[in-house]
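Sequence decides. Consider this:

===
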Amino acid sequence: MPLFNRKNVQKIKDDPAAAQHKHNEHDDRVKQNLVFHCQQAQGSPTGLVSNFSNVRELYQRVADCYDFPSDEILFCTLNTHKMDMTKLLGSQIGLDDFIFVHRKGRPKEIEIAKTSEALGLTITDNGSGYCFIKRIKENSIIDNISYISVGDHIEKIDNESMVGRRHYEVAKMLKDIPKGSVFTLRLIEPIKAGFSNIEPRGSKRGKNPSYGNGKETLRFKANGAAEIQKETDESQKGIDKINQLLENLLGISDFELATQIWEKGEDKLNSMDFAEAIDNSDLDELGFTDDFIIELWGVITDARAGRLRN
């Protein structure tokens, strides 16, 4: 007998307007009081940005600071100008973190023969409509194509635009391409500042992302608000493990999504309540199976009990 039956759960989606109203006063205080240093990764004077509560607003503030369109930003890294995928800006920023902005560079089109089921890509997105390559598996199809690199934005698959799509949609489209087919990827690489800016293609150095001093972070909430929170060791380990499960299942890496899943379960008493919280939110569109929900719940309970190791 299954541990729970998700089919009979009445789906009552969270009211974004009500949630936003609840957080407005606190959100305004957060936006006004915090100031972050930033630079363009390829080199620039240091700028100051503030008054933002989500990634899109942050990109706009940076673009305003340097006077270029915000849609030129591919992604940001924290505390390094290098394309270190372990230090991507996601759903939170340490209050002492330094933001480095990676902008669009050269476009390129590559024809690929899908000679095996898996291409060897892990895909993430920037929270503002651009998906890009986070990791390339060693000895995979993509690893054998020297023109494709970590950090490349996937703009088109054949003639279909991927701009505005989430990473799991892009990952599914690539997975669904039949073995034996030939297809074309149009990619845009970030502007580089010489060889010192490039991490190894399959680098796993620094497995966990950086969160500044590890004491307090500005966290972007799913409802559009922002909160200053103190990170706990249990929550960080739980979020990291959830992200690993997402990569194994969907071929995506998304600490924001992993954080959202953690938040849905951190105050729940059992797997049924957790499953209901998932089904009554926008996470439902991911179509998690009951088995995967149980696996996620196991991570959450293990993290709470201190059973997860680094």
